[in-house]
Amino acid sequence: MTRYFIFETLTGEVLREIEPSSASWSSRLNEPETVNVDLPLNGPDGSDVERERVARERAELIAGAVASGDAIFSDVAPAQSVVTNLFPNPSFETANGDGVAGVTGGVQSSEWSSTGDYSLGLVAPAAYAFLPPGIEVGSTITVLARARFAGQVLSADGTTPVVAIHDGAVVRATATAARLVYLYGVMNEDQTQIVSDGWWDDLLIVEGEYDGDYFDGNTTTGDAVYRWTGEPGASTSEAISPVLDGKVWVTPGGIPHTWDGNGWVEAVPAPESPKRVLEGWRNYLTPWKHSLMVEESGRLYGGPIQPHDYEPGAPVKVTARGIRAYFKKRNILPPSAISVPLVLSDGSPNETLDTNLSGLDLGSIGRFLVEQACQWDGAGLPIVFEEPRTGVRVREYKAVELKDVDEALGQLSEVLNGPDFDFRLRWVDDSRVEWVMVSGTEEKPHLSSTAPDDPHIVWDLSASESVGRGPSIQVNPSEMGSLAWSSAGRGDDSVIIARQYDPLLVERGMPLMEIVDTSHTNVVVQETLDDYAKEALRTGKQPSEFWKFSVSLGDAPYLRDYRVGDYCMVQISGDPYIPDGDYIRRIVEIIGDQDGLWADITCGETFGRI
What distance in Å separates the CA atoms of residue 12 and residue 8, rounded to the nearest whole number? Predict the structure, then answer.
């Protein structure tokens, strides 16, 4: 299932899910990914699409409630009643010294019980009284209790006796509350004398007239919800009826409501005013402040919103780029550069603001550049960094050159065995996302979950029921050459030159061709410049060749199994241009669309790198 979201760039907090009318996304190796959507507003104020959304969500909620038996159709809001058993020790499970908590007299007896482990044991001829907690004298109360023996007597007001007519009978009395509630053992017929011991259990005292059953917080039967209001067995408890949690009340107008514990609230509020809808979209689509994200098969792609176009009556066309695009707008400078001048009073560069890195591998140098950019006020992006790795690499970045971070990452990748960099979006929880910055190592510069000599991602594009279509091939010889030059300028106006030569192409009958790279003006180490020339010559031994084909996202291998940068095997047979065989290629781009059914895969040569 393909889903689209808008979230805050600086916090990762997801603001809302959106439903584009058309969409596409792409993930590219060592470049920012891209998400494009057409967001329908159906008019200049967006009110139509809001009404459609509300109607759809209401219909889905009501249909689900009907299917589960939780729908209540009524023109009057269903009411909920709460009955409280005010006696905090109803089955006498808690003791108070030698007696029973809440009781004057009696013992906690395990000889008999109706519920729990204990009951209130009485010894004839004494009578034992209860103070009715929370009840004012003169108010109406209802008292229930279960007697062990026929002939035991209960009095809710101390004057009017009610007799248990058989063993285990529940005795009920409604009266005007006096100071005490009285429980007795077995009495004679005229209730003037206690003739034998008795036991009581399951005491209930409620305000007002009550014709329901006994309950405490352990009760599990019936249609009500029962709960203790404090410590189990030692507090009052409530019976809440009917059970409204999980129910959906539907008014005659078809508006669903859900119970929030205290009352009914509209489950799907009515659409906002047209003006507020438009203002909302204007805010959601604020470039850089908000980001756009697609979730496809468990993978997340996206980043800050970039340009978007709006015309009345047409969908808003929105483009978002991966977070690496942000670092095109950030220079390699420490946070102190916000107030410290880059140039001294004599016109010379302020070298205290230079960023000089050593003792790291290339991937960790890139990590430091990004982390330093995030240390500025207003730049605390939700990025998780891997642990830095030691190494022998050296890079010096002059503050006055104002080199942007993204350019520096690209140059780190372009040297011989330079590392890949990736910013991978992931869920933190169901309401927030973050990026994880990862980089290749010296031993394995490519970010790949598959081995170049034995990839586990295989697409047979020639099978009769293939899950792929294609491939098409683009061949570009513009970067080919046998002689590679790289040049860089030093701060003292001198230059350094790197030269690499390989006669392979000449020996194969091709004319001598040269490759010239002058883009590394800040390189000060000859070895670094040599690496640029070596990399250019290594990849220039053959034309760049990109294979493009489509694969089904509903069949193995699934999108969750691979990323850009992974090696894959493409099996070809019966093609008039490509000889039969198994071809190992590296995925450099994945493009998906709104339907989430197919993805376009672009592969480049591996050039023998690991």
Answer: 5
